[in-house]
Amino acid sequence: MNSKKTDRGFTLIELVIVISLVGILASIFFSRVLYYQEMAEKAAMQQVVGALQSAMVLQYGPRMAMGTGSWVDNINTENPMEWLSQKPGNYAGEFKALKAAAVEPGNWAFDLATHELIYVPKHTEYFVPAKDGAMWIRYRARLSYESKARDKNARVLAGVIFSPVEPYQWMIREKP
Question: Which of 1-15, 99-113, 121-135, 153-167 shows the lowest per-residue confidence on average (mean pLDDT)?
Fold first, then answer.
């Protein structure tokens, strides 16, 4: 009767190697999940900005058809969220003298004092703030003018743009 034991358990070294590999794979997976969450947030923010740009053009056209005046000039002081048929679910509302800390991350808000629409990002690992250093992105409707060919001092209203007040960056690589 040979009673050789062919069933062996894991050695301590094998167990440590497997646990290490699982830990490394899990950390890679979770860093990619965070990366893609931030990319999705950026895309959602840009989608809202695109909708606001389109809504602003729809506001501007009829106003220009009616003639220039305060009705057209006021477009850069209005809350752009009012131009949408349905406000985004993450719109926090209007505030006076808005501070970044007053808005929950991942939400939009309108500052009544500066007439700026502000987005406070929720995921900021790859976000590089503007020169002011605040972890937010400020947008504003601006009127653009062109000079008349005959009179260099006379300016004609040419259009409207919805753009960031200061440049910002989201340092997201194209291929992770």
Answer: 1-15
Q: How would you class 166 by CB atoms within 10 Å of its CB: exposed for 0-12, middle for 13-18, buried for 19 or more?
A: exposed
User: Which of 83, 140, 86, 133 minimizes the C-alpha distance to 111?
Assistant: 140
Is the pLDDT at 174 greater than 60, yes or no?
Answer: no
Q: Tell me the DSSP string of 131-169.
A: TT--SSEEEEEEEEEEE-SS-TT-EEEEEEEEEESS--E
Residue 176 lies in a domain: no
Domain count, the chain: 1
pLDDT tens sequence across 4-27: 656 677 788 988 999 999 999 998
CA distance 164 to 57: 17
